[in-house]
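Q: Give me the 3D complex with zinc ion.
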Amino acid sequence: MKISKNYMDFVVEQVVNLCEIASPSGFTKKAESYLQDFFTKLGFENRISNKGSVIVELGGKGDPLALAAHIDTIGAMVRSIKDNGRLRFTKIGGYPGNNIEQENCVIHTRYGKEYSGTIQLTKPSTHVYKDIVKIERDDKNLEVVLDEVVNSKEDVEKIGIRTGDFISFDPRTVVTGSGYIKSRHLDDKASAGILLGFAKLVKEGKIELKRKTYLIFTGYEEVGHGGAAGIPKDIVEMISVDMGAVGDDLKTNEHTVSICAKDSVGPYDYDVTTSLIKIAEEKDLNFAVDIYPRYGSDVDVTLRSGFDIKHGLIGPGVYASHGYERTHLDGLENTLQLLIYYLGTSN
Ligand SMILES: [Zn+2]
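A: Here is the predicted complex, encoded as structure tokens.
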């Protein structure tokens, strides 16, 4: 089934909207509300688990399955306020420090105030310091410079910033005329946007579900326990819809849907993975089967938490993951197509 331009435009719009909502792991309430509003307006029952996963029942009968994307992202938290009014931070999620150097950021205080700043080296000026290139980009040498007139710890405390406040990075989302989407946090907001498009297709009768289908949007994937709880008890299968990695010997790129056969935890379910590969082949999708030795997914965690389910992992290729990422409309479309062929009959 060819997905109409309207639907793909809708998916891109949702990806952009989601990227613009700050949601480092542990600070996902705004993204949760966005999703709950979305599904309520679309007419789907949804609920939120204690730990903040949004769970939606899309309909269908038999063989219950869940598609899971995560709405949390990498980010940071204020670790301490320095005597000179700069902030030391601690990372949320895994990424090298150079991926955020010189990025604009927002500090979200626990009382709802937001302040902007920039992540800088403590010795940032090439006109003053030599050997900048050799400085290790760690949390000692990188700091947050606030866009406020603050010169001491007391000044910063006076405006309400405290240890434990969340820090989000400017997503800098750009959609190019050639169909690329460049942004931070396409991992995994690209896939979350795809699932919103999938829900709209179901609602508007473009596809009929072959089996009972849930959508789950988790909030702690980047810190390793997103899929550990809040999963519907009746599911027999779960597919993480999460980014495909690009690089080295991998065949995935921004135009493909990636089908992961094995990640750092081990092989994905034989039947699910084989069936996904066969469908992608039969339907002539642009796809790649890859192995991700430095990657773990939400559904890995669900299995480890004791669920007896079959599991799979697919998603659009995302370049420069956990940095300033890039994907393409093609990757989104191929992923959505694969989900439609796997789970639905098109009308
Ligand atoms: Zn991810």
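A quick observation: The first strand starts at residue 46 and ends at 48.
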